[in-house]
Write a structure and sequence with these properties.
The chain is α/β, with parallel strands linked by helices. It has one domain (7-119): Rossmann fold (3-Layer(aba) Sandwich). The protein is built from five helices and five strands. It has helices at residues 15-27, 38-42, 64-74, 92-96, 107-119; strands spanning 7-11, 31-35, 52-56, 80-84, 100-102. The N and C termini lie far apart (33 Å). The modification 4-aspartylphosphate is found at residue 56. Residues 7-118 form the Response regulatory domain. InterPro entries: Bact_response_regulator, CheY-like_superfamily, Sig_transdc_resp-reg_receiver.
Length: 125
C-alpha cells in the first residue's frame, strides 16, 4: 500500500452500507478499513493509520455520537463524518461543516466532504 493513500475507516452495523461505502471509497483511491461496530474499531490496531472516520449514528452498544467523543479523546485530530438512516439531530457544528449525512446520501457529496476533511477545508475553527 502506498504511504500517500489516505485511509478512511467506516463503522456501520449494516453490512450493505459497509460494502457500498467500501466500493465508493476504493473507486476514489482511498484505503478502506471497514468495521461492523465501534467496539471492533476500538479493539483493532487500525487507529494510528486512519485519516478520516465515517460512522453510523444508530448502532447497538457504542453509538456514533459516543464513538465520535471517544475518538476526540484518542485522536483529537481525526475528522469524523456522521451518517444515519434515522432522524437523529446532528450537533450544529457537524451540520454546519458538512460532516453529517442522512441515508441515502449522494456518494459524490460524501467524497467531497471526505476530501475537505482531509485537507482541512471543512475543519471547524
Amino acid at each position: 500500500m502506498s504511504l500517500s493513500k489516505s485511509v478512511v475507516a467506516i463503522v456501520d452495523d449494516d453490512q450493505r452500507v459497509l460494502d457500498s461505502l467500501e466500493d465508493l471509497l476504493e473507486s476514489a483511491a482511498y484505503g478502506v478499513r471497514a468495521f461492523s461496530s465501534a467496539h471492533a474499531l476500538l479493539s483493532s490496531n487500525a487507529l494510528p493509520e486512519i485519516d478520516c472516520l465515517i460512522t453510523d449514528i444508530g448502532m447497538p452498544g457504542i453509538d456514533g455520537f459516543e464513538l465520535k467523543r471517544l475518538m476526540g479523546e484518542r485522536r483529537p485530530d481525526l475528522p469524523v463524518i456522521l451518517i444515519t438512516g434515522r432522524h437523529e439531530i446532528p450537533a450544529p457544528q457537524e451540520a454546519k461543516h458538512n460532516r453529517f449525512f442522512r441515508k441515502p446520501f449522494d456518494g459524490q457529496a460524501l467524497l467531497a466532504a471526505i476530501g475537505d476533511a482531509l485537507t482541512g477545508g471543512a475543519t471547524p475553527p
